[in-house]
Amino acid sequence: KYYLVDSGYPNRTGYLAPFKGSTYHLPEFRLRRHRPPEGKYELFNFSHSSLRNVVERAFGVLKQKWRILKGVPSFSPRTQKHIIIACMALHNFIRDSKLSDKVFDKCDADDEYVPPVLRKEVAPTQADPVEEEENEDSMNNIRSRIADACLAMAR
């Protein structure tokens, strides 16, 4: 039995949603007993899910190291951006300097390690309905082009 995703989120600037009605989560692909993703929707969703796992893991490690990231939603979007950039710069400095760091070391030692991170629900921002439709159409086009490229690369 395969499960289909419906994230409930539309495509919009800053958020590229998976294709609805197609396999999405990595465990669902693993249940298929080595049958690779088929078609452009599954290929896109597999790539999207794989990248999402990497990003979530990276932010989990960063949130463990830089506790301010757990409270970022309480800041303005501009300040959020600056906090994240500063934390990434400090992270890169530590990595480039080859300084030992126990949180990063745990992540390096175990590919499956995900630090325990408290998640907060953040209320979605309200956008103008006309602007939202334009953003969704634009992001749908981008998603479709990426899916076509995934399919072309798989051949």
UniProtKB/TrEMBL annotation:
Its cofactor is a divalent metal cation. One of its GO terms (cellular component) is nucleus. Its main location: nucleus. Keywords: Hydrolase, Metal-binding, Nuclease, Nucleus. GO terms for molecular function: hydrolase activity; metal ion binding; nuclease activity. It is found in: Nucleus. Pfam families: DDE_Tnp_4. Residues 2-92 form the DDE Tnp4 domain. Belongs to the HARBI1 family. This is DDE Tnp4 domain-containing protein. It comes from Aegilops tauschii subsp. strangulata.
